[in-house]
Amino acid sequence: MKNDLIYEMQGAVRRIQSYPAKKISLFHHNDTDGLSSGTILLTAFELAGYEISRFSLEKPYPQVLEKIFLESGQIIIFTDFAGKIAPIIAQLNTGRNLVVIIDHHPAEESGDESVINLDGELFGLKGDRDISASATCFLFAEVLLKSIGKNAGVLSHLGALGAIGDGFLVNGKLSGVNRDVMKIAEKQKLIRVVKNNVGEEYFITLGGTEYPAAEICVSMDTLGGVGYYQNGTSLGIELCQNGLTPSLKQLIDELNKKKEEIFSREIKNLEQGINTTDNLHWFDVKDRFSPMGVKMIGVFCNIIKNMDFLDKTKYLAGFQTVPNEVPGFGHIEFNLTKISMRVSDFLTEGIRNKTVPGLSSFLPSATRNIGGFADACHGLSAATTVACGQEEELIIEIEKELEKLGRH
Fold it and tell me: pLDDT (tens digit, 9 = 90+) per residue, 20-66?
């Protein structure tokens, strides 16, 4: 459990400190959990004297991984993704770099000592309940900074923020390692907890100013998702460090206005008709969400999943074309579409009661059946990518996988 994970982190820190390279390439996700994780690791490694090159990815696409692993002798850190694809990373790396994965999604051992997988799921912790990526990164930062006589307590609030952003609450409260980290932040007076009739509400101090944590999560998701192609992830890191400056507030308002325009238009389209199969509602926005990032297809699905024009007994799937660009990497010829899946509140209850198959039980396998890429899926939310033009083929494969699981 937690102690076993910390023990492995201690070994990973020793490996990093003894590695010849003193430069680190850091790759993190672009939502609240990923941006919090990125800020924690960026700060901790800088305090430890390392030079950091930081990149934010919407997904660790194979085309991006291939480019990353053209080099040798690097220290490469992935956080808030890649736990599941550790074996693929090991194959690409062939022992040429030291790779550390710090994640909370369903995971696999790498099978290679040069790829260290510090994913809570490998240590008996539940990534959608007990531990977020940011909490995992905080534990790692504690180990790293303690090894050089420094304290990571000033980062504890960011360790809890990712869990709040992912919505991984039990009875309205943070639990497990997430709660342990929140308690540290509370002692540091960086998080304030207010009990309410549904659990707890959290207030976080950033740059000396206190904000409702929920507001910060929305702001970070907006910067990282809506503003992904407009330097939004760098601004999300800035928000974690300094709080909501007037210029950031203005930009977030502008991004939200654009998002609402795009989403409202698409909802009107779907109310006129949506593709339907035995177990699914599905649609394809193609590039109509541009210039927003492809994380937004999942956000959109989450917003509409309980709307009246949908059958609550069916899974919801949306496709969005992946732009041929990664900020910081330049042009990459993807030719990919991303599928994001969400479930209604009705199906959520069935999945939690194990009477209905969760998304992670069929979407990854259906994707791989047609040569697609699957790296990070939960039971209630999941996303993978396939080649453009394979959308209907993937829907057929999903139905086949569901039939195997006894759902007709």
Answer: 999 999 999 999 999 999 999 999 999 999 999 999 999 898 899 99
CA-to-CA distance for 58 and 284, rounded, in angstroms?
Answer: 18
Closest C-alpha to 85, from 163, 66, 129? 66
With beta carbons less than 8 A apart as the criterion, state whether 304 and 310 touch: yes
Distances (CA, A) of 324 to 51, 85, 337, 394: 28, 22, 11, 21
Q: What is the pTM of this model?
A: 0.90
Q: How many CB atoms lie within 10 A of CB 209?
A: 11
* DSSP labels, 226-294: ITGGGTHHHHHHHHHHH---HHHHHHHHHHHHHHHHHHHHHHHHHHT--EE-SSEEEEE-TTTTTTS-T
Distance CA 401, CA 396 (A): 9
Question: Which pLDDT tens digit goes with each residue over 81-93?
Answer: 999 999 999 999 9
Q: Which CATH number fits domain 277-404: 3.10.310.40, 3.40.50.10190, 3.40.250.10, 3.90.1300.10?
A: 3.10.310.40
- Both structure tokens of 140: 């790692």
The answer to whether domain 2-212 has CATH 3.90.1150.10 is: no
**Alpha helices (runs of H) in 48-173, residue ranges in sequence order:** 62-68, 86-93, 133-146, 156-166
